């Protein structure tokens, strides 16, 4: 199977989305000159060029793309060539309105923006396949072609009639009989029983709360329907170029695609990362996305998009202070990225994204943004050979699962203040702040390589996943599990006793009598810390140790944190310091060490292959003591016993062996 390695060939790929169709061709020569200056070796082309290539049904205008790819090849710049199928031309919507998506209210989503296609539409799929076929045939042997990029950020949802039929077919293969579907969806409730398949709809706007199992299946279906669009195009390009790796770019922590399942269908796993420059946890968020994507990729992965400066889709769009782009870029590399790309190369002058930054901003080649980009390009060239292809390892896994996420968003739950993604981020932060290297894993996956496994929250757990967790602990693994886990099965059906019985036995819980969610800002006293967001009325079975009990209030004296051997259950959300302390303590017991001891706050240490990356997320300089003799690959200077990092500073240290 082709991989990122084939495209990177011992380098870090560096570049970005390149949309030269927005510029007169004279500008292209300037583009490649500046790309070469900045060390750009890869650009993503064609993402939004459907209307340029096929200006009317069946037409093919490849001349400009021929000239562009020839130009790139002549300058040794590789092309990540996109199938332009995420933004159909206006003629398609005008001629075939049935290709346009409909909202859950039945409203038509018009063309005039992007991503306006119904994933179930056979007409859309036919046009997309025909164009992909011709694109792949034409450029299969082009020397610039290094990676196929299918579509862009698959994120469309549709509730139209075509989708309804497709959904029914999907349900038919999942359940075979209507009885099985009625049982799985619990349609005895509120007179929802279906008598024929034709009655079943996508969960459209309804009078009151909708059926949560139907919604869960619709989310599964939508991820699968989009994946069919992806695999159809992937199979076409792979037939023409079996040696060229294929990817599609994920949105970060995006609920619409089960990224574990999608990643299995990709040669390269790529993601678009846009931490907010003003978010005090931006560095950890970036680390988390890197850990997640690396885990999905099972190795080196690709930053397909990031921003060199401000984005244009937040309420207030802040630029990146000097040094932050470099810091987050090298952080991604430290955490396994072998490709570091931006949206986009040259900042647009027109259109909805003209206020979104580019590598080459409106300030031009003398602008601060471009100077920083040039520096990053030069540094990647320095370290590329040593870094590319090397691994990042971790003793700890955080479990993450789309089914559980989807089930956690349903209406009518105990607290709408509980956010699955925030919990994942909060628990990951507990480890990140303790300097512990982390991966992500699926609840049903092989956990044997990890000394410690964390479950921030998995409301839905299937039987196989439950058995997997139990077997992991029985095999000596350390499991720390957050509240409201194992509550429903894969049909979203409640498991009696407030939690799966096998898990209750694992943690020493006889019954979960009630969930006691907390109001915003409220806390519940516990031994040694305050809990937030949630608490639980647990009746222990006597086999577990109460590590901390609730103090005061209704739950006074009942266990808040339980431990039975190496299985821990945390029934509230401890504040950040307490969570960090708890995870740090359990990690130490499990033999998990931080990457480097005694780091100043805000400094992150990551080992990748033989290199040690030090990254200062603080706004002031930091001094780091080192346990040996190193050389900083970025400066060539010795770092014996310690190194000084400027604000947002980075050192990439190689061991000096005697
Ligand atoms: C991504 C998208 C790009 C661009 C970017 C702006 O979601 O793939 O095309 O719109 O956001 O941040």
Automatic annotation (TrEMBL):
Domain Beta-galactosidase C-terminal residue range list: 602-653
Listed InterPro entries: Beta_galactosidase_C, Beta_galactosidase_Trimer, Class_I_gatase-like, GH, Glyco_hydro_42, Glyco_hydro_42_N, Glyco_hydro_b
Residues where substrate binds: 114, 152, 313
Keywords: Glycosidase, Hydrolase, Metal-binding, Zinc
Cited Pfam families: Glyco_hydro_42, Glyco_hydro_42C, Glyco_hydro_42M
Residues the record lists as binding Zn(2+): 118, 158, 160
Catalytic activity, as annotated: Hydrolysis of terminal non-reducing beta-D-galactose residues in beta-D-galactosides
GO molecular function: beta-galactosidase activity; metal ion binding
One Gene Ontology term, aspect cellular component: beta-galactosidase complex
Name of the molecule in the record: Beta-galactosidase
Species this protein is from: Streptomyces pratensis (strain ATCC 33331 / IAF-45CD)
Native organism taxonomy: Bacteria, Bacillati, Actinomycetota, Actinomycetes, Kitasatosporales
């Amino acid at each position: 199977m082709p991989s990122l390695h084939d495209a990177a060939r011992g380098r870090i790929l560096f570049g970005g989305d390149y949309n030269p169709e927005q510029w007169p061709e004279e500008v292209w020569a300037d583009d490649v000159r500046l790309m070469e200056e900045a060390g750009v070796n890869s650009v993503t082309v064609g993402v939004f060029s459907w209307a340029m290539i096929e200006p009317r049904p069946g037409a093919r205008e490849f001349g400009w793309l021929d000239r562009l790819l020839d130009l790139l090849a002549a300058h040794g710049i590789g092309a990540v060539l996109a199938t332009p199928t995420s933004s159909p031309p206006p003629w398609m919507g005008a001629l075939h309105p049935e290709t346009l998506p409909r909202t859950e209210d039945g409203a038509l989503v018009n063309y005039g923006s992007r991503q306006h296609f119904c994933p179930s539409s056979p007409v859309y799929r036919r046009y997309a396949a025909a164009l992909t076929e011709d694109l792949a045939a034409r450029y299969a042997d082009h020397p610039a072609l290094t990676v196929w990029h299918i579509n862009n950020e698959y994120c469309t949802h549709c509730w139209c009639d075509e989708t309804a039929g497709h959904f029914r077919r999907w349900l038919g293969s999942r359940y075979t009989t209507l009885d099985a579907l009625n049982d799985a969806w619990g349609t005895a409730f509120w007179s929802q029983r279906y008598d024929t398949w034709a009655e079943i709809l996508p969960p459209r706007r309804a009078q009151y709360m909708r059926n949560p199992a139907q919604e869960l299946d619709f989310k599964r279906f939508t991820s699968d329907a989009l994946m069919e669009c992806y695999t159809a195009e992937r199979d076409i390009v792979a037939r023409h170029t079996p040696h060229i790796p294929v990817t599609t770019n994920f949105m970060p922590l995006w609920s619409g695609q089960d990224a574990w399942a999608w990643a299995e269908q990709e040669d390269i796993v790529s993601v678009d990362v846009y931490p907010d420059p003003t978010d005090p946890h931006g560095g950890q968020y970036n680390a988390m996305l890197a850990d997640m994507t690396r885990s999905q990729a099972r190795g080196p992965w690709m930053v397909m998009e990031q921003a060199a400066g401000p984005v244009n889709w937040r309420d207030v769009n802040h630029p990146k202070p000097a040094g932050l782009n470099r810091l987050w870029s090298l952080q991604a590399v430290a955490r396994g990225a072998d490709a570091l790309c931006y949206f986009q190369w040259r900042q647009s002058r027109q259109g909805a994204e003209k206020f979104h930054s580019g590598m080459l901003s409106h300030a031009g080649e003398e602008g601060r943004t471009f100077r920083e980009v040039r520096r990053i390009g030069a540094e990647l060239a320095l370290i590329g050979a040593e870094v590319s292809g090397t691994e990042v390892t971790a003793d700890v896994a955080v479990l993450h699962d789309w089914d559980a996420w989807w089930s956690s968003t349903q209406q009518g739950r105990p607290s709408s203040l509980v956010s699955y993604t925030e919990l994942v981020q909060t628990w990951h932060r507990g480890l990140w702040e303790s300097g512990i290297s982390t991966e992500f894993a699926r609840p049903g996956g092989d956990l044997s390589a990890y000394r410690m496994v964390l479950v921030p929250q998995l409301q839905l757990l299937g039987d196989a996943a439950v058995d997997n967790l139990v077997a992991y602990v029985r095999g000596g693994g350390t499991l720390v599990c957050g509240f409201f886990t194992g509550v429903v099965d894969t049909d979203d059906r409640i498991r009696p006793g407030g939690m799966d019985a096998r898990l209750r036995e694992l943690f020493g819980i006889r019954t979960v009598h009630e969930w006691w969610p907390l109001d915003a800002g409220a806390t519940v006293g516990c031994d040694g810390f305050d809990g937030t967001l949630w608490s639980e009325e647990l009746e222990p079975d006597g086999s577990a140790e109460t590590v901390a009990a609730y103090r005061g209030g209704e739950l006074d004296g009942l266990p808040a944190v339980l431990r039975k051997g190496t299985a821990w259950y945390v029934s509230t959300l401890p504040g950040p310091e307490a969570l960090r302390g708890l995870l740090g303590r359990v990690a130490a017991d499990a033999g998990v060490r931080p990457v480097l001891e005694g780091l100043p706050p805000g400094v992150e240490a990551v080992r990748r292959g033989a290199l040690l990356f030090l990254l200062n997320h603080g706004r002031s300089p930091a001094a780091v003591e080192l346990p040996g003799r190193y050389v900083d690959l970025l400066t060539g200077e010795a770092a014996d016993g310690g190194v000084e990092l400027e604000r947002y500073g980075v050192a990439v240290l190689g061991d000096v062996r005697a």
